[in-house]
Amino acid sequence: MSYTIIHMQQDEVPQDKKNLNEGKLAKLYYATDAKGHYTKVNSIGWEPETVAMEQAWDVVHAEVETARQKVITGKASPVLYYLKKNIMNVPMVAGYVGTFSFIVRLHMRPYFFNKLSRKTLEKYAYTFRISVEELLDIEPLKKKHES
C-alpha cells in the first residue's frame, strides 16, 4: 500500500465558515510554514466535508421523520422512532435491552409493543435515555407534525 503525502502551506488549510459546527469545532492539521517546517493549524472545515455531512444528516432526518409518521399512523411502535432518533440499529438496541434482534423487530410493531411488561418498557426507556412515560406518549410526536 502506498500513501501520497500532500504538503499544504499554512494559508492553504481549508476554513469553510458554512460548516455544520458553525466554526465552533476545529480539526488539527499539520501544514508547512514559510520556512518549510511543519506547524499545527486548526481548520474549521472544508466544503466537500461539509456537503457530505449535510447529506448524511439529511438522510438521518428523513429516516426519523418516516419513523415518526409510521408511529403516529399506528404502523410502528415508538421503539422504531427512538431507534432512528438516536441513530441506532436493531442489533445495538437488542444489546442494550438484553434480547435478540428479532424480538426488537417484533417490539417495533404496535401489537407486540402494547403487550410489553413495565420491566421491558423500562429497558427500552433506559436505552433511549427517556422515561417510560415519554416512550408511551406519542402525542408530542403528533405535535411536531402540526408545528
Q: In words, what does this structure look like?
A:
With 147 residues, the protein is mainly alpha-helical. It folds into two domains: 10-45, no CATH class; 54-146, 434 Repressor (Amino-terminal Domain) (Orthogonal Bundle). Helix content is 52%, strand content 8%. The chain is built from eight helices and two strands; from the N terminus they run ββαααααααα. It has helices at 47-72, 78-85, 90-97, 101-107, 110-113, 118-128, 132-136, 139-146, and strands spanning 27-32, 38-43. A two-stranded antiparallel ribbon has the order 1-2. Strand 1 (27-32) and strand 2 (38-43) form a beta hairpin. Helix 1 (47-72) runs antiparallel to helix 2 and helix 3 (90-97) crosses helix 4. The N and C termini lie far apart (53 Å).
Beta-strand level of the residues, as a percent range? 5-15%
Report the principal-axis shape. elongated
Task: Output the strand order for the largest sheet.
Answer: 1-2
**CA-atom Rg in angstroms:** 22 Å
CATH structural class of the largest domain: Mainly Alpha
User: What's the number of helices?
Assistant: 8
Number of domains: 2
User: What is the assembly state of the chains in this entry?
Assistant: single chain
